[in-house]
């Protein structure tokens, strides 16, 4: 019998998948290449079932003879390992994000005389179960815990700032393909700086938590990915415990609070402005109070250490990290305003020598030449791109406004504008 290869990228099996298997079985012995959990995260979403659970389900389907791991969206490695005579796929990949994958499959099959068989993609409305399962990811109790789950499957996670519903959709839907792999953001960062800037107000905790929560709600209404909130200092301990419960109830995955006191000043000013670091004892008490206030195990409180920003030294940063973890912090964010990442790498190395498990977070606004791959190798779990959408958006809007004023019409600004139809494709017609 001929060997027939089919890739599955789902944990929701419906009639469309059964139809593909039946047609493949008519051509020979069916081998299913099942995407790994990490490949699923990068390609579509966090799988609701683990690879092993998905493997057992697919193996039990009539017509399936074997199931193998496909580590990435690219078929190339598995095709050159198993040399199937035929690859079967729906014709939906002729265009769109999977088109390069299709072209690669055709080239690899040519190497040994394999054949590609494409079958009509089913648009049966009864198969909307997948869309419904994706919509379930927006439910607070499901969304909240996904950050922890994803950290167990992938390192580092890539998080992009969002400060509105539309920027949330950009973070949710942007996807690129490189070298047979797909890449997308794993979650969203709701920044105090960007939220304040979008409202035309200074970043001094002037925008109160009620307003911040409204921004989160706007983003949550149209997205499904995990959200991390920039909680500034967390405020008074008595207030912070209520904030924790509110965020937890909404489905936010984590809050990051910084160990400073007094009127907030942006960390990237460093010692150029007066900034006061909180005592280890007081900040640890705030962490402990927040953890005690939690009603679930999934929500995370991450401690942001300002010692390097304020030039207090590496020993102070490491002492605080150890103390905050002992106080209950679920993760440590280490911050620096230097373009050279050396002190970040030094902190990470020394921290990991004593603590191999507590998640580490970085915000590479200044040291932006470091790749995610290198951060991952050095033990970083989460990389947050904290303000890039805001910083890129405002210059573009200013340039457009200037062009209209200079030319007394809008024609010259059109080349700088996205067509309305493209914008509308980002916005769901139905509630997520």
Q: Averaging pLDDT over every residue, what do you get? A: 89
For the record, give the distance between the C-alpha atoms at the N and C termini, rounded to a whole number: 44 Å
As a percent range, the share of helical residues equals 40-55%
Largest sheet: 8 strands, parallel, barrel
Cα shape:
globular
Number of distinct helices: 18
* Helix vs. strand class: alpha/beta
Q: What share of residues are in beta strands?
A: 15-25%
Low-confidence stretches: none
What Rg do the Cα atoms give?
Answer: 24 Å
Q: Strands of the biggest beta sheet: in what spatial order?
A: 6-9-10-11-14-15-16-17
Total strands:
17
What does this structure look like?
With 432 residues, the protein is an alpha/beta fold. Helix content is 42%, strand content 18%. The strands form 4 sheets. The protein has an 8-stranded parallel β-barrel, surrounded by 8 helices.
């Amino acid at each position: 019998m001929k060997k027939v290869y089919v890739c599955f990228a789902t944990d929701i099996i419906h009639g469309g998948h059964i139809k593909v298997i039946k047609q493949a079985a008519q051509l020979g012995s069916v081998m299913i290449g099942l995407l790994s959990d990490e490949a699923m995260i990068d390609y579509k979403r966090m799988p609701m079932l683990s690879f092993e659970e998905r493997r057992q389900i697919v193996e039990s389907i009539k017509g399936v003879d074997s199931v193998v791991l496909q580590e990435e969206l690219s078929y190339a490695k598995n095709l050159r390992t198993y040399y199937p005579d035929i690859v079967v796929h729906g014709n939906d990949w002729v265009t769109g994000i999977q088109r390069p994958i299709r072209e690669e499959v055709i080239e690899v099959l040519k190497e040994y005389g394999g054949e590609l068989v494409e079958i009509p993609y089913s648009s049966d409305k009864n198969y909307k179960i997948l869309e419904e399962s994706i919509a379930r990811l927006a439910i607070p109790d499901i969304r909240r815990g996904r950050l922890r789950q994803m950290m167990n499957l992938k390192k580092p996670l890539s998080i992009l700032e969002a400060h509105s519903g539309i920027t949330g959709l950009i973070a949710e839907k942007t996807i690129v393909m490189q070298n047979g792999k797909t890449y997308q953001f794993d979650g969203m960062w709701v920044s105090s700086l960007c939220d304040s800037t979008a409202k035309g107000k200074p970043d001094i905790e002037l925008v109160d938590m009620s307003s911040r929560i409204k921004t989160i709600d706007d983003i949550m209404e149209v997205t499904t990915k995990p959200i991390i909130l920039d909680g500034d200092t967390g405020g008074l301990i008595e207030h912070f415990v209520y904030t924790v419960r509110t965020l937890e109830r909404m489905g936010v995955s984590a809050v990051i609070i910084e160990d400073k006191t007094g009127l907030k000043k942006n960390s990237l000013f460093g010692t150029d402005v007066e900034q006061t670091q909180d005592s280890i004892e007081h900040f640890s008490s705030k962490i402990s109070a927040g953890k005690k206030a939690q009603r679930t195990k999934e929500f995370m409180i991450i401690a942001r250490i300002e010692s390097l920003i304020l030039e207090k030294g590496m020993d102070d940063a490491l002492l605080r990290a150890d103390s905050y973890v002992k106080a209950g912090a679920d993760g440590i964010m280490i911050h620096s305003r230097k373009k050279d990442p050396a002190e970040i790498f030094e902190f990470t190395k020394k921290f990991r020598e004593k603590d191999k498990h507590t998640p580490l977070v970085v915000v590479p606004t200044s040291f932006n030449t470091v790749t995610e791959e290198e951060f991952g190798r050095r033990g970083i779990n989460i990389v947050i791109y904290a303000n890039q959408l805001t910083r890129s958006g405002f210059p573009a809007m200013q340039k457009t406004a200037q062009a209209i004023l200079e030319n007394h019409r809008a024609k010259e600004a059109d080349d700088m504008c996205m067509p309305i139809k493209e914008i509308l494709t980002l916005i769901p017609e139905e509630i997520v």
